[in-house]
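Worked problem 6 (solution included).
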Amino acid sequence: MVRVVRRLLAGVMINFLIIFGSFSAATPATAASPGVLAAPSCPDGWFCFYDDVRFGTPYGKLSDCGWQNLATWGWQNRTEAVYYNLKSGSVTFYESNGTPLFTVSASKRSISDVYPKQNRADKVYRVC
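Solution. The predicted structure is:
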């Protein structure tokens, strides 16, 4: 099931694409290039990954435990910042060959620029 929801946020129309209720992505509807946010926009109960440093849009979010393939939603090799907005656990991002890249958790919530490991994440593993 795919559902598109439109919301007006800070004067910018945002499209939310929700797939099977476990993933969503947001991007400004009229933006020609990605926007950079001052603070992460990541709802409570999700971990988010951003297509630009400093939590710029578009972004995707997941919440399930265990392994997830970012290619399922077209997000492989495009993560530049991450934010963990859950009360416990952690999530590690991996390359396609299984090499761990970076981890965020309840105690280390954000990485605003994953350099030099930008645009290399293909999979995630969340420990709940």
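Discussion: Confidence is low (pLDDT under 50) at residues 1-24, 27-33.
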